[in-house]
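FIELD: query
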Amino acid sequence: MLDDRIAHPTDSADLLNVLFHADNGTWPRRRIRDEALTFMLAGHETTANTMSWFWYLMALNRDARDRMLPEVDDVLTGGTPTAADLTRLPWTTACVQESQRYYSAVWLIARVAIEDDLIDGHHVRPGTTVLIPIHHIHHDERWWPDPETFDPTRFIGDAAKDRPRSAYLPFGGGRRICIGQSFALMETVLVVAIMSQRWTFDLCPNHPVELEATLTLRPKHGLRVIAARREAL
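FIELD: result
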């Protein structure tokens, strides 16, 4: 891809051109390749798992789904959603955010200490790898009352104002927070809205759904659903 773009340059505002022109075009070829690869892998694997867990949780929580579908219908009236519609889809967005709390595609992140530190009485030496268990934080009763209940109202209105910022980390946090956070949330909500206009998804009976925690948190045996077509608006 890089060779083709170098041989056939364009003036389009796409990812490769942004990377080629970063810092006045001073990035070495390897960094451009690595950054492009990271965008593609992170944007595919995590999004696919996020969507899988979302439809799984919607199938298990019909009340939340039954509230989401009318919102999508009323806001979009059969049209294709755009970024401008996001603010008019608060319940749909909250369902996505709660699904990311319940089953975060990135369930664990690591950070390497660069200097001595003391965390809750534990001495952390420079060079130590510190693991941040996102999945467990998202199910900690100190920050999430009744954490095993799927409850999108946690993300409606001022519900989050008294919650510590690092209690919710589907995209990590701090200076290394996922650069695609805003795009990923926008993308997921729009895909959910588009699919919900025409389909509902229920779980196939007897298909096992087990957590598999590798680089991401994914359904070990995949997720099988029964798609039912909704009446066109």
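FIELD: remark
The chain is about 40% helix and 15% strand.
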